[in-house]
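Predict the 3D structure for this chain.
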Amino acid sequence: MNNTTDILRLPAEILYKDELEALKSEDLNETKPIGWQLSPKAVFKFITGGTSKGLTITPKYIGHNRLVEIAIATLLTDRSLLLIGEPGTAKSWLSENLSAAICSDSAKVIQGTAGTSEEHVRYSWNYAMLIANGPSNEALIKSPIYRAMETGSMARFEEISRCASEVQDALISILSEKTIAIPELSREIPAQRGFSIIATANTRDRGVNDMSSALKRRFNTIVLPAPANLETEISIVTKRVAEISNNYQLKAALPTNQVIEKIVTIFRELRQGQTLDEKQKLKAPTGVISTAEAISLITNSMALAGSFGNGSITDEDLAAGLQGAIIKDEEKDKIVWKEYLENVMKKRGAEWRGLYNSCSDMNK
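Done. Predicted structure below.
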């Protein structure tokens, strides 16, 4: 296996290995559910932050701690968990870190798309072996859910509402009966204790492939809200930008608090359709102006500054990112962005003048 420093994106159980080991050693005398490596309280600490054996446990989710408690409590039962919310509300990040904390394996993932089939949910076959020897254990290709069931661990189903209804319905019997039937082998695979599914769904995809009532009833649903206020969103962006910068070894200096506050302010105002002081209504762009997009914009600006600048993020770097993040529909969004520049940003004084000029030049 390659050195972990060569891997582009480390899974949470490797990225936070030291934290998990510290929590395990502190958690030795605590009662743990079957299939769990940590107690519920230790899982909660891993997600929300704290200290363990003198080691700082970094918060993985910044938001309502009660939602994290409900999520963990759900996974203690025979119910599966559905996390829904706007893009950028950390649904996938929370799903991954819960799986890492509970069973040290966040890699059993199905990525929901229009091309996801029922075979991705249940099992498929090595067709060369199937034709040569007929149905057999050796020819069987197990899905992530299949593997999670037989090992009593967590499976993740990302963007479940992107899948066709027949694919979603394949989950109903699995969640109800906790078995996968393999008629070709005259066998049923029962789920071992510890098995559960953490699914995510995007509220922007509502109406694409709405989940049936029968499937929704088999999940406990938690709605993850967008960051409640400016300060919370700034702290989330600051933390994730620092982590990503370190992982990618970007050569630029970390952005100042002023830079992050400007970007988050722009995103929140366009997302909410009004200025932060609620005195001015704004048109919203057609795209998703999420926290995740703000994080991506700033890290891309760091890459620009480190590779083609002096190592410090400039207004020109930020303007290039804002142009791409906000203008998804060339005609409509360009008008929305121009109105924001002239009616809001231009009037904010000297601190915003450089960014306003750079954005105006880009938007011509």
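The CA atoms of residues 35 and 194 lie 5 Å apart.
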